[in-house]
Recover the amino acids of this structure.
């Protein structure tokens, strides 16, 4: 019978044989000998002050020539022990990769959640007045007042967007100006563009009712003041413009000012068609105010987590995009040639691609519909395949977000537990016994 | 070689070194000394009557300077042991948060499920006749008879709703009254409202066929009697009206009575246009009877769990709402300016927002459709993004509900196991050996 | 210091104190004494030949006054041990219900999968000729020949359905008969039904082209022969008609025969309008042949698992139904009153309910669409809520099916492993060492 | 008291009784006797150098007569130990199948992921120039240059597809030829086909604008050169054509050449109607270029994983197909007979099936819509059932893909960990202690 080697790891005794240990010669266990300080000659046992549970798995590796991961141990602890015993991670057998690398995912997510809450202004410790105002304007979670201020800001954004909408409704406009513009405009323009220009002019330049105009003006003034405050008080211009939403706010506010000036000086618009196009461009820029709604992410944590999850799902979003593009092209092209000889509404391939994408996403407007039997068969395949093809990457993004959501909840739970606020799940009967 | 410390926890021996234990000086293990009652001098071992599995993890913390959670242990037990050994929850290392805080979710859900079944009238122990009737009317799960009674109640609700529907169908109406009302009405009204008023009057006041009217009357009487019984017998009015459905029932019943009175005295309606509007308002209120269907939740447990899950998913529903609103505004505004110069049907921004929301939810009616190439490109992006953006919060709500559903099933299983009704999964060969 | 009690369970030593054990007086451990046969006086230890892992958890219960379930142990084993130690299942603490009752789900599913494959004719052991033919006709998985036969049967079903479709296409009909019927028919009928009757007659009675008719006749003969064989050979009539598909086949075949007779004797149809209605009813019955496609479940295991999962998801399907009905009624009624004064197409409440259900399921035909601003707002809410409300029960059914699918896969894996066919995942280096 | 048997497995002592062990007589444990080399007479104990954790479970089997699987052990290790102790896999009790066979799924997936990356040209070790070019052309992941080359290739494919689209747009065509063709064509053709032929000719043969034509020509030349290079350099023709995309490229390129020849010699087209049909066929073949987009899978790993997952989900895709087909037939047939007497647009059964499939997938174009009350009821059921029925198989495919995606991520993590690139998750405080 082979000689038994006794190893005591953290109090648990393991017994094995010499030939078992030599199967991986370059590891700590294989090089063990009786001259080591860990060897206790009195009972012929090696004593190690390490974790016995991980060691059990590691010793099993010497027996089976495969390293399996005990699922209940945290992978980080196992890696630590593997380093101690001199076993590289590449020894981990294939069947255990799933559980062994799972923790990396969690840590990646917690890292990213930490980063997104790190860059905040409120982290600065001792603050003077300027810094405190900056924190107030920049971080809604810094104080109750800041939260209320941001809610008010969002309200103004909402009013401003509402104004944008109401402007376009017939009822809220007074129409004296239209004839003058249209006649004047039309003369300076090439015939082909005339119709569009008149429509543009008639819509953009119409006297919005005064109530609308003054509300708009009030919003612009508010945005301007808020931006100037931020710009003056911010520690550096770089930090200010690194925030995507600040840059958007600056562009939108400038555009809104220009639009207002046009609105009060409509003669400029009538002067030339260049002005009409300039006005249209400014109008487009001023629409960016809609994006200011994303300031909500500062107050509403779930939205921030959602945006974070989307940001880190870049590969999956790309996959979604690629799937949609390839499927659209394939089905669009096939459908065009199938429907071509019939009296279908698919006159060119772009229309059939439009049909394909609207079918793939199961929106199905019904403005373009195949009319041949073969076309309908392909459309059926397209709609089922669309369901499937879109579900695949969407499911991955969804599961990413779900992970972020759950980790973010865990983080909040940990913060609460650490702060001692959440004692309710503590077992009650033992509270008296702590450190008695 | 360092001196070995022997700790016997619940029979399992752990061996470590003094310097390992001193790494966290403020804990019970660091302050251990040979004068403690737990120290047994005969074999130089500390004896603790605690759980050995949790202690293994805690001792590992002293070695690795990181506290990892052994996944197989219930987190509640671990917290209990951590309290005993004087280790705060904040020591738990980041990689184990997932498993360590998972149990809180389960307990939260079981708490909420317990609450929803706690407020029931049937919990009162010794009941007099009044209380027993109250239980009968309030809690369908209290007895078989109560269940049948509630089914009958739901049937009446269904009949009442059917009457509501049939009233609106042309066939079930007799039309002698219309000319009188319309001519009479029209005179008293401003010209602009005339058309609507006539249509309203013609629809609301038309003689519904007698069968319909008498069925309606029967339903109203039934509801009235049921409500009065409940009101008289209920221990306190506060409890009665705290139940949302009772409040709804009261409003709906009163409105139904008023409508019936109008129905039998149509001359009042013809007298003035104020009466027409009053009648319309009452009609709206009487429609609330549809909500009485939610009484089904009392009988049908799954529906109750669903409503409970929705109630606790408030944050996720808010996220869904915010996602939809932001995406609608962004896409609506963009689409309006893109489609504006074309001959599109998007005349104002509200229509383009209507288009956006119908596309985002992939409903796609097709009544408003982009017609330009750029517009269609944006529509494609909108439909894919809609799929994605709605899937994210919906998935979280769905997973919440799934958790509630599973916990509710577990609860039922536990109740069955406790009541001894579910012995079928008990191993058979050992039943004889219990407590022999 | 309290006296230590030494318990050796399956070789693992546990040490505890007397007062710990007496906390649950009615259990086996509390009643332990030195006179038991398990007590070994030589080393003052109780020896039990039980599982040490489960005992660790049970002993912890005496210490913490809460029974926690060690997640890695199979719950069935734990229950077994709990019985031995005299601990009822109701002691299991709430936080561990999830893992403790999880296994019941798996066993329920495996039970149902076993039942669905148990009732098969092929289980009979020693078979005579009649039984063998019965197995051949009833169970496609009994032999390769039976599989081919069932594929051929499905092909005939497909041809028969194709015939059903082609009959309705204008091209495949010859039209001499129509005038005779329509004129004849119309005379005997009340004026209001005339139009429908003519259309019915013109469609049902038209001479289908001979190719169609003879194919139909061939199919009918095939079905008849198959059914007669089954009926003659089947051990009992009860078993034969208990199979839902056999009953369907009988009805469909009889109806097909009658239809064929009508087809060849069209004068009967022209004789009276009763005959026209009888013919229509028979036509409806003969359509049931479509359901014969479900015979595919016998060959295609996944379809069988799907049907099984749907069958056991009855509660969730009911929930889905209830959700759809309540949401349809609520939104339908609200929308009717909102859209009522406008020039909408929602003339009665059934149309607005039709709109509601088509919007809730995000189908969105666009035939009925709200036109007022408020109506569109409600429609937006309806579409988002529909997405959510339908997703909830569907997700539960889906997860049920996924469980069935996975368990069915596990079962196949086990069968393969048991049959020794699936050795590829066996570790190779140890195969030689088995039972040496 | 029964005699106790002491078994020491890997250092852990197990104590049991002889009668316990004999319950499974054909296993290694039952045949144990004191003459074995494993028996140590000095302390009356059997010593085995095996895994103690697995042995605990196996010994429990002798006690409970059921083999339960300890969830934390890797199933592969357990199988290894079961082989050693002579216990067949079929002994595994039903409640543990789930965890016991779970690992097979993971290994199956990793196998398939390995196969898909095995067949690559880049695996060849020592390469000569020809081989290196082959690797460069075949495997984009072999080098940075190969990646860039493949991106450029995809760009050309994109341009080629764009040309395909632009050709079909009215604007990009010059129209002198149309009259000649149509008049000429029409003479040679049967009257019924004339209209289609003219439309075909007018579309296919129109002078595309020269810019379009020359871009097309450039693309064709590029594809030809790339294919010839590949064909010449490839080690064997079999390998070349085994790649599905190469075969597609060859067909598409040949067809594009022919089309170009037709384009520059339009007189041939006018000569006979056979030529028109030939041209149409060639046009169809040249459309296959769209499939070349799948070359993207070589660069974009996620797409490859998606295709792999779809390939192995064949059974589930078949199930999806069967579900759709059966549901379409059932609902199509029912709806036809319901809607038949009304003035519906469902004239034949193929149209009602088209309606059914478009409703089942919730696309809902709205071109065919039921108009009767009963028809709408069936449509409601159809849309809800469609949602459910499609969700079931799609969910399985999605979960398959999710598994593939996660395993593919694990694989990448393992590669990184093995390469030593990913040290960031290594615990830092212990790095110095490795193998000191």
């Amino acid at each position: 019978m082979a000689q038994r080697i006794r190893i005591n790891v953290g109090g648990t005794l393991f017994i094995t044989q010499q030939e078992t240990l030599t199967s991986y010669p370059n590891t700590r266990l294989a090089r063990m000998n009786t001259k080591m300080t860990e060897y206790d000659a009195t009972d012929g046992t090696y004593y190690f002050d390490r974790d016995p549970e991980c060691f059990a798995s590691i010793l099993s590796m010497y027996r089976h020539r495969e390293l399996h991961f005990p699922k209940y141990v945290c992978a980080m602890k196992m890696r630590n022990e593997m380093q101690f015993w001199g076993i590289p991670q590449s020894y981990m057998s294939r069947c255990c990769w799933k559980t062994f690398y799972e923790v990396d995912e969690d840590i990646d997510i917690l890292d990213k959640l930490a980063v997104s809450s790190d860059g905040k202004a409120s982290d600065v410790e001792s603050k003077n007045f300027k810094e405190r105002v900056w924190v107030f304007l920049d971080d809604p979670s810094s104080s109750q007042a800041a939260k209320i201020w941001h809610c008010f800001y969002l309200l103004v954004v909402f009013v401003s967007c509402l104004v944008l909408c109401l402007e376009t409704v017939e009822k809220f406009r007074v129409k004296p100006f239209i004839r003058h513009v249209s006649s004047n405009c039309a003369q300076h323009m090439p015939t082909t563009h005339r119709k569009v220009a008149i429509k543009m002019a008639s819509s953009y330049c119409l006297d919005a009712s005064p109530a609308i105009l003054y509300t708009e003006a009030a919003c612009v003034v508010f945005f301007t003041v808020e931006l100037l405050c931020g710009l003056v008080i911010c520690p550096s211009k770089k930090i200010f413009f690194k925030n995507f939403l600040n840059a958007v706010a600056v562009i939108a506010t400038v555009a809104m000012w220009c639009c207002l000036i046009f609105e009060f000086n409509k003669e400029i618009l009538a002067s030339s068609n260049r002005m009409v196009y300039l006005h249209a461009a400014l109008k487009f820029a001023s629409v960016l105010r809609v994006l200011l709604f994303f300031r909500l992410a500062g107050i509403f944590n779930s939205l921030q987590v959602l945006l974070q999850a989307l940001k880190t799902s870049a590969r999956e979003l790309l996959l979604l995009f690629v799937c949609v593009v390839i499927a659209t092209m394939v089905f669009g092209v096939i459908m065009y040639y199938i429907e071509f000889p019939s009296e279908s509404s698919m006159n060119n391939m772009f229309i059939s691609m439009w049909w394909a994408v609207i079918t793939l996403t199961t929106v199905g407007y019904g403005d373009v519909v195949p009319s041949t039997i073969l076309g309908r068969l392909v459309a059926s395949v397209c709609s089922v395949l669309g369901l499937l093809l879109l579900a695949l990457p969407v499911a991955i993004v969804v599961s990413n977000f779900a992970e972020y959501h759950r980790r973010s909840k865990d983080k909040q739970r940990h913060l609460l537990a650490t702060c001692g606020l959440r004692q309710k799940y503590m077992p009650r009967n033992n509270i008296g016994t702590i450190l008695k």
Summary: Residues 176-182, 421-436 of chain C have pLDDT under 50 and may be disordered.
